[in-house]
Specification:
The chain is of the alpha/beta class. It has two domains: about 5-185 and about 245-355, LarA, N-terminal domain (Rossmann fold), CATH 3.40.50.11440; about 190-240, Alpha-Beta Plaits, CATH 3.30.70. The chain is about 30% helix and about 20% strand. Helix 1 runs parallel beside helix 2 and helix 7 runs antiparallel to helix 10 (about 245-265). The longest helix has 20 residues, at about 245-265. The protein is globular and about 60 Å long.
Length: about 350
């Protein structure tokens, strides 16, 4: 049986007000408000963006979702988790301030913000799953305590998974710090000394203090490295390399299994929105302004996270028209998270589209 994925196309010149109306229409058409019941605490998972990031989902687009949930006599709240890398988002206090500075306030969105894994990312619960890699995963406590869940995902490229979509928003986005470390630990970077300029940016941003500088090059202590990829993201000289062909698939599989832990026991209480708008090659965790890699496509809505990502990746491949490596990272098969998600029962990748004007 194919999953119905609802689709609202955009032209790229819509005003915020028009996009709000589109979000409300597709949310209603997909019946996503029905995941929430009276007195539910309903989590709306979203990325608040780094300081210089301007292509994340705009705060006003949350309001029609929050209002629809509130109309069901439920209690919506916006949420995300602490990140591993050094950022205002690595603790709940500054994360809340970051959300506020980017406009995610109750008067704009219609809902308060709660950081799901507590002050420093260790408010967690272990969830038993029937995974192929894990039997237990560490998930942010508030994600599990919430009675129902909506994700609002900004689809982007991603340096470690090829595409950042709904599965990643669930699996990585709702993991505690421990869960994130378990996912990232499969990949370890190396320094290409001939390209290293000793600028120190990799050392500055390394969350594990695993990088030191010698007289000629940066050096990574493999025993301290957590494989998060932050050094690759901040290096502007091509001096950091990962063997993505070996490790990216494993990372995607681990993310999918953590996503399964998030939705376990409440699959019928989850709904998903994906925004194929202002799509950049790197994700919203990058602390600089990015330019969209391809023209805007539209908004997707559905009840199956695997089908949602399959639809998004299909649209991107069609729009990229033979230049997919300019949008996603070369050598990374972003379909692996989708295939593995289907294998472990997270959802099904087959879908049919229903357009919502």
């Amino acid at each position: 049986m194919q999953e119905i994925i609802y689709f609202s196309p955009v032209t790229g010149d819509e005003s915020t007000e028009k996009l709000q109306k589109m979000v409300g229409r597709i949310f209603s058409a997909a019946g996503l408000s029905e995941v929430a019941g009276p007195n539910d605490l309903t989590a709306i998972k979203i990325h608040f963006g780094e300081d210089e990031n301007s292509t994340h989902i705009p705060a006003p687009l949350v309001r029609p979702v929050a209002e629809a949930i509130s109309a069901r006599e439920a209690h919506p709240f916006l949420t995300d988790t602490c990140v591993l890398y050094r950022s205002r988002r690595d603790n709940a206090v500054e994360h809340l301030r970051q959300a506020r500075d980017h406009g995610f306030t109750p008067d704009v969105t219609g809902a308060p913000v709660i950081i799901a894994d507590g002050l420093v990312g260790d408010a967690e619960r272990e969830v038993e799953i029937k995974g192929m890699i894990f039997k237990k995963v560490s998930i942010a406590a508030a994600a599990l305590q919430a009675n129902s869940l909506i994700t609002m995902t900004h689809i982007t490229g991603h340096l470690a998974t090829g595409m950042g979509g709904t599965i990643k928003n669930l699996g990585m986005g709702f993991s505690s710090r421990k869960g994130k470390l378990r996912q990232h630990s499969v990949s370890k970077p190396k320094i290409k000394a001939k390209y290293c300029t000793l600028c120190g940016e990799c050392r500055r941003w390394c969350p594990a203090d695993a990088i030191s500088l010698t007289e000629s090059t940066a050096v990574i202590d493999k025993n301290l490295c957590i494989g998060c990829g932050e050094c690759l993201a901040v290096c502007r000289f091509g001096a950091v390399a990962f063997d993505w062909k070996v490790d990216a698939g494993e990372l995607q599989r681990r993310i999918a299994e953590h996503a399964l832990g998030v939705v376990s026991g409440k699959q019928d209480k989850c709904g998903y929105l994906s925004f194929l708008i202002s799509m950049t090659r790197d994700c919203d965790c990058m602390n600089w302004k990015q330019k969209p890699a391809i023209p805007d496509i539209g908004i997707l809505a559905g009840r199956d996270p695997v089908a949602m990502d399959a639809a998004a990746l299909t649209f991107i491949a069609e729009r990229a028209a033979g230049r997919l490596d300019e949008v996603l990272y070369a050598g990374i098969d972003a379909w692996e998270q989708i295939r593995h998600g289907e294998k472990i029962g997270l959802g099904r990748k087959e879908f049919i589209l229903e357009t919502v004007d």
